[in-house]
Amino acid sequence: MTAFTVTLVLVAAAVGLLRWRRPAWYWLTFGVTLAVVRVLVRYGSVMEACGLTVPPARWRLALARAINRPLPESRSPRILRLRPTRTGLVLRLKLRPGQDAFDIAAASDRLRHSFSMYGVASRELRSGVVEVRMTGYDVLKRVQMPGETDPRPMRVPVALRQDGSVHYRDYRAIPHALTLGATESGKSVYQRNLVAGLAPMDVALVGIDCKQGVELFPLARRFSALADDPDTAAEVLDALVVRMERNYQLIRAQQRITADVPDAEIAADIWDLTADLRPVPVVVLVDEVAELALYANKEEERRRDRIITSLVRLAQLGRAAGIYLEICGQRFGSELGKGITMLRAQLTGRTAHRVNDETSANMAFGDIAPDAVLAAIQIPAETRGLAIAGDSSGGWHRIRAPHTSLRQAVNICNRHAHRTPDLPELAPYRHALSTLADAPLPPAKPSPATA
Ligand SMILES: Nc1ncnc2c1ncn2[C@@H]1O[C@H](COP(=O)(O)OP(=O)(O)OP(=O)(O)O)[C@@H](O)[C@H]1O
Ligand SMILES: [Mg+2]
C-alpha cells in the first residue's frame, strides 16, 4: 500500500514537473487525453452555460406532447469532428438554426475557462460550420515549429501562431511586407528566419543592411547582392529596377498574342513563363529602412529621393517581375519624408513587434486593422519576438518566430550557398566572403541626422 502511494505521488510529481517545465511534452503524453475526455464530458453543460444552445424544434415539442413523453432539451451545436493536434484540439461544429459564427467567437473566452484550455479561437469554415481551435498551453512561450509544414514555392513557414498553426510568409499571395518594432523587439530574428526559410528555395536574395551589415553580411554566401551603406543601397536598387524592366521585356516577348491563344495562356507575370525561361525571383530584404530615408545635406537628400523612388517603383511594379520587398524598421511614417506613405501603402503584409507608442503601431495597422494596434502595444517587453501579423483583409494573428541564432542561420546559408544565383545586373554587389574576414575596419562615419 505504501509502495503504491509512493509511486502515485512520484508519478503525480513527474506529471506536474512535466507540465511546468515541458508543457509541449506534457500535452503530448497526458494533456491531450485529459482534454479530450474533459471536452466530451462537459460539452453539453458548457454549451448551455455559455448560452450556445437553441430551444428544441417546434415539431419535436409537439411530438413529445402528443405521445406524452418528457419535453426534449435545448440543443448544442453538433460536433462534426474532434481532432487532437500537437498543440491542442480542433473542434468542428455544425451550428443550429438561429446561431451564427459570431456567437461562438463571442463566447471563446468563456469556452476557454470552461474547458480549462489555454486559448480558444474560432473561424467560419463554410455556411453553418465553424472550426474552434483550442490550445492546451502557451505555444508561443517556447516556439517549436512542427516537423512537417506545407512547403510551396515562395512560401516560408516563418513563425507559429497563437492557435498553434503555422504562419507562412507567402510571397506570391502577399508580395511586399513591412515589419515594425522598437529596438530589441525581434525584427532581425524574424528576418533571419525568413532568410533561413528562403535559402533552400530557388530564389535570389538581396540584402540592404545599413547597420554596417552586422545582421545580413554573415549570411553573405547565400546573397546575390549586399549593401551596407545608403550609397551602395541606391545603386543596388537602381540595378533592381533595371532587372525589373528586363523581366517585363522578357514577358512581353513571350506573350506572342494571336487570336487563337486562349486568355489563360497569355503570360502576365514571371510565373506564367515556362520554367526554362523564367527569371529567378528576387527577395529584397531591407533592415533598418529609416537609415535610407535620413539625410543631412543636399547631396544626401538627392540620394534619399533616388532610393525612395526606386523602392516605390519596385513596390508598385515588382510583383509581376518576381521582385518582392521585405522591409524592417523601427518606425516608418510620414516624418521620414515624401514618398514614405506611398511606399507603405504598397506593403500589404504587416507585422508589428513590440512598439512603445500607439503612433508606431498605427504605422503598421492603423490603415488596415485598428484592433491590431491595441494588441501590438500590449506585447510585453520580456517576450521578445512576439508580434502581431496582419494583412489587408483585416485579419490578424499573434505570432512568434523560433529563436534562430545567427550561427544556425549562417550554417543554413552556407549549406545552400550553391543555390545563390548570379544576377548579371547585381554582379558588382555580390560579396566575396574572403573579403569579409580580411576587410579593414571602415573609417568612422558621421551619423546622419534628419534635415
Ligand atoms: N522569436 C524570438 N524568440 C526568442 N527570443 C527572441 C526572438 N526574437 C528576438 N529575440 C531576442 O531578442 C533579441 C533582439 O532581437 P533582434 O536583434 O531581432 O531585435 P531588433 O528588433 O532587430 O532590434 P534592433 O532594432 O535593435 O535591431 C535577440 O538577441 C534575441 O535574444
Ligand atoms: Mg535589428
Automatic annotation (TrEMBL):
Keywords: ATP-binding, Nucleotide-binding
Binding site for ATP: G181, A182, T183, E184, S185, G186, K187, S188
Highest taxon listed in the record's lineage: Bacteria
A Pfam short name: FtsK_SpoIIIE
Residue ranges of every copy of the FtsK domain listed in the record: 163-362
InterPro entries reported for this sequence: FtsK/SpoIIIE/SftA, FtsK_dom, P-loop_NTPase
PROSITE patterns, sorted: FTSK
PANTHER family the record matches: DNA TRANSLOCASE FTSK, SPORULATION PROTEIN RELATED
Protein name: FtsK/SpoIIIE domain-containing protein
